[in-house]
Amino acid sequence: MLVTNESNRRNQGDAWLAALGVGGLSIGLSLFSPWWLLGLLLAAGVYHWIRRPASRRLKATSSPFPDRWRTILQSDVAFYRALKPEQRSRFENLVKIFLDETPITGIRTDVDDRTRVLVAASAIIPVFGFDDWEYAGLGEVLIYPNAFGDDYRTDEGIPRNTLGMVGAGHLSGVMILSKPDLIGGFTNPEDKRNVGIHEFAHLVDKADGSIDGIPAGIPVASVQPWIQWVGNELKSVSKGRNHINDYAYTNEAEYFAVLSEYFFEAPDVLQKKNPQLYSRLESMYRQNTRRFLSTPKRRRRVGRNSPCPCGSGKKFKRCCRRRTVTK
């Protein structure tokens, strides 16, 4: 998703090759008719069309990261708080790119900065361990005022049990999230529940073409062992798994998504309860979440007169806390 110097040079080279190819063909055909010289305009268009995605991302990452967005990340996202400074910078750049490219639309509810930033954080956390990742099939995120039921209805008096979903059929490319449940997923960073991470885990799963519980990028040698593991888990009624949400045992896809929430919300508990399962998820996501999301670090308190952790240089009582209260 990020544009590196190497990928930018490669993109420029591809753009020039394509433009020169179209331009050269136009000049050659102009020997038969001068009208073919209009193809030079097409060559320029081809160059800009190929360069546009990289140029847009470079422009997005070169802009300053808004203080209000950083305050939200500091306040609500334990994953961000646990990162080292250079990792935070990368996380912020990914947030800027995601929000620049992905429409987030409120359905009978407003979409404020907090909602938008938490959607972006939900998208970035699962793929932060990958050097290059694209949510290529995601066209829009719809934010609902609360949980919804059949036919995506939020009417009073009907069962509303769905907190989020990845659309299919005519809603392919659309994700739907309940606003209060999205925010609630970040309120308690250790309850093993985060609907945003859950739904983006489904998109990680879907990147290979289907939502089947076998995520894209999983090492080839791990595919068959994972299939066998999940199959045995879904058939098992053994004791000792009560630390896992029952919804995981609905099917293979939900098992992967629920365990993804667990892996990013309470990795120390997961590793203690089931080291083998933790190790499998660590390999899939290429992140050792237990190492930097340990409970003591996440619960570290900042004194009122301590330097604000956002790096502003101000005292905490006059920086993040004040902005969070008054926003």
Structure at a glance:
The chain starts with a helix and ends with a helix. It contains 15 helices and 4 strands.
Describe the structure.
This protein has helices spanning 5-29, 39-62, 67-76, 78-82, 85-101, 113-127, 179-187, 195-206, 220-235, 252-265, 267-273, 275-285, 289-292, 295-298, 320-326, and strands at residues 104-106, 140-144, 164-166, 174-178. It is mainly alpha-helical. Helix 6 (113-127) packs across helix 7. It is globular.
User: N-to-C SSE series?
Assistant: HHHHHEHEEEHHHHHHHHH
Number of alpha- plus pi-helical segments: 15
The oligomeric status of these chains comes to single chain
Spans of at least 5 consecutive residues whose pLDDT stays below 50 are 296-302, 320-327
Strand order of the largest sheet: 1-2-4-3
* SS content category: mainly alpha
Roughly what is the average pLDDT, rounded to an integer? 86
Mass-distribution shape: globular
The largest sheet is: 4 strands, mixed
Radius of gyration: 23 Å
Sheet-strand content, in percent, reads under 5%
Question: What distance separates the N and C termini?
Answer: 30 Å
What is the count of β-strands? Answer: 4
Helix content: 55-70%
